[in-house]
Design a protein that fits this description.
By secondary structure, this protein is of the alpha/beta class. It has 8 helices and 7 strands; from the N terminus they run H-H-H-E-H-E-H-E-H-E-H-E-H-E-E.
Length: 216
């Protein structure tokens, strides 16, 4: 968990967020930490509430997630979908998504989630070219963000949203000495979004940075 604000505020922040973690989510978070101790690949409880709220506010029926890991964020978003809603989850790992499948089934949302195991860029290219996506969440390999963004914004309906996670990279985006692949890729996608006339955007200091993009 990355702290943008004073770490001492974490408990206060979480205690002033609508509760999201029931037994299923708590057990999933705990199993993920046991499987990958200290992992930062899983979103936090408050970010799960945030994503679910965005899905509800957009009245989304089709959500695309790029980067599923053990399924916490997908579970939060799938619960916010209407009964007929669908979430396409893109990931390359059978190992981690096997954990996700168990908890989706336990939560009663597995029928809403279409898990596709393949490189995300390939999966996105197979989606219809029409503007049918209501909401998308990108939280995968950072070097792929520019490609994922371009594939999704073209398929996003007017008024639809894309949320991109980790767009501050622990503050390294503003370090001119940092030329690591993932930081360079995040700088590229941040600059692309800012200059893109098709969208409105805001980069929020939520955890490690969440950029919200709204299609005009």
């Amino acid at each position: 968990m990355t702290h943008i604000v004073n770490p001492a505020l974490d408990d206060y922040l979480l205690s002033h967020c609508s509760p999201a973690e029931d037994e299923v989510l708590r057990d999933l978070a705990a199993e993920t930490q046991r499987a990958v101790p200290g992992t930062t690949m899983q979103i936090s409880q408050d970010e799960g509430v945030f994503l679910a709220m965005l899905v509800g506010l957009t009245r989304a029926r089709l959500v695309v997630e790029v980067g599923t890991f053990t399924g916490y964020s997908a579970l939060c978003m799938a619960r916010a979908l209407p009964a007929e809603g669908r979430l396409i989850a893109c990931d390359v790992s059978e190992e981690w998504t096997d954990i996700a499948r168990r908890y989706w089934e336990r939560a009663g949302v597995s029928e809403r989630i279409d898990l596709r195991i393949a490189p995300a860029a390939e999966t996105l290219r197979t989606l219809p070219a029409e503007e049918t996506v209501d909401f998308a969440f990108i939280d995968a390999d950072k070097s792929g963000y520019p490609v994922y963004y371009e594939q999704l914004v073209a398929r996003l309906r007017p008024g639809g949203l894309i949320a991109l996670d980790n767009t501050l990279q622990g503050g390294r985006v503003v370090d001119p000495a940092d030329h690591s692949e993932q930081v360079v890729a995040i700088r590229e996608v941040n600059d692309t979004i800012t200059a893109d006339p098709r969208v409105q955007s805001v980069l929020l200091p939520v955890r490690d940075g969440v950029t919200l993009v709204r299609k005009r």
